[in-house]
Every structure is written in C-alpha cells, then in structure tokens.
Amino acid sequence: MSEKFERLLSILKGMQSAVLAFSGGVDSTFILKAVKESGIQSLAVTAYSETMPESEFRFAEDMAKFIGVNHRVIKTDEMSNPDFVRNPKDRCFYCKDELFSKLLNIAKAEGYKYVIDGSNSDDLSDWRPGRQAALKHSVRSPLVEAGLSKDEIRKLSKAMGLPTWSKPASPCLSSRFPYGEAITRDALKRVEMSEEFLKGLGFGELRVRNHNDTARIELKAEEIDRLFNKELRESITNELKKIGFKYVTIDLEGFRSGKLNS
After folding, report:
1. In which domain, by residue range, is 85 found?
2. For residue range 181-235, what is the model confidence (pLDDT) as tens digits?
3. Which pLDDT band, with edges at 50, 70 and 90, does 129 fall under?
4. What DSSP string describes 101-134?
5. What is the distance between the alpha carbons of residues 177 and 87, in angstroms, rounded to a whole number?
6. Alpha-carbon distance 202 to 252, whole Å?
7. Are residues 224 and 105 part of one domain?
8. pLDDT (tens digit, 9 = 90+) per residue, 139-157?
9. Do 190 and 154 reside in the same domain of the chain?
10. Is position 175 within any domain?
11. Which end of the chain is more exposed for a tag (fewer CB within 10 A), N or C?
12. Which is nearest to 207 in space by CA: 190, 193, 219, 225?
C-alpha cells in the first residue's frame, strides 16, 4: 500500500472517532474504506434531499453496506433556504453549511471527536465554496492532509477492489443551473428524469443543463455522433419535452465537468 495511504490511516487513527459526510462518490467511498481499516469509532452519514439523484442515494446505501460500516441517512432542506434557491456563485456554501451543522450536532450529541469530509488535494485549486463551510465548522479533510489527489485515489481504489474507482463525478443536481437562475423542486426533478432517461439509452457521463425552459445536453464528444440518428434524436426530444422542457439542445463542445463555472 502507498506511503500516502499509510499516512491517511495514521491521521485517522489519531482522530480516534469521526462522523463522515458520505455521498457514495469516489472520494467519500475511498475514505470510508480507510476509516473502516483504521478501526476508529465512526459513523457515515448521507444527506438526502431533492438535489441528490435517487440513483446516487441508493448507490451510497449500497456502498455503505458493501464496506460494512455504521451508516445513517439524514434529511437536509437546502431548498427552504432562499440564499441557496437564488443560486449565487457561492451556492454550495449554503448547502454544506447546513450539512456540516447537522453533522456537528450528531458528533457532539454522540461523542464523536471530529467531522470529516472527502475533499482531496485537487479540490484546493478549484472553485469550491463548500470548502469555506468546512473551514467555518472546523471539518477536517484527511485526504487533503495526506496529500492525496483524485488520480491517486482512483488508483488506490482500484487496487483495493472498490467499485467506485472508475465512477464518474456526480455533483448535486443544483450544479445543472447557471448561477443566478433560481432553483426549483420541479426543475430539479425535470433534470434528474432527463439524465436518467439518457443514461438508459446507453450514454455515459453526461449533464442536462437547465436554462429556464431549455435543456442543454452535454455528452462526451465521442457520443455526440450518435445523435445523427434521426429516430434517436426525435425520441430524446419528445421525451424531454414530455418531462417538461420546451426546447432541447445539444452542446456541440461536449461534456466538461464544471462547465458552468467558466
């Protein structure tokens, strides 16, 4: 096992006990496995709300069972926060602020010394307002402390037999809305249903960006050619209109994670 992983285990053992914000993604699953191996007292907590796709929630439950840890689901209600709903550039701060507040309450009530998250060293160079919420609540990021990057985490996850090693990034559904466009429950569900439909057609990593009543579909560049098939294109258009979009467009630049941050 790598020197950095040994460093991670040492960091976790030094904590003695922790509550982990667990989403079921690449990073949080990897650190959950490390927490399990460290032997410390721990609780993995998954926050469920309208901004989390149902499929991702079920996947998180499956991963917690796969690793064999104490797991709890809590409800967060960022959609009741007008600062979140208006969708400013620091939108993620308000979501994480609520999450970490609730995790800290659990930790204090049940005797856990720390709250930890799955941020990695690459996150320090990206636009991550959620990091400010973590700093506000003194949430620790052991992957950052151990100096582990996303690529290293994927490689170690593969070596450890974690099915998440090749899992695409899946940020919350609110990331499909351009900053400044208000987020609604109906629009979140519309985006979720559209993305699930496209995945059911065999498309890989993708996003359906919500621009008021227009869907802008981002596919991997190599998959865009599939849409030259008239029947497939019409099927997608009809289904997304049935779901609630008025217009359906394709982004010819293709998929790029975080494109709305540009």
Report:
1. 3-166
2. 999 999 999 999 999 999 999 999 999 999 999 999 999 999 999 999 999 999 9
3. confident
4. HHHHHHHHHHT-SEEE----GGGGGS--HHHHHH
5. 8
6. 19
7. no
8. 999 999 999 999 999 999 9
9. no
10. no
11. C
12. 219
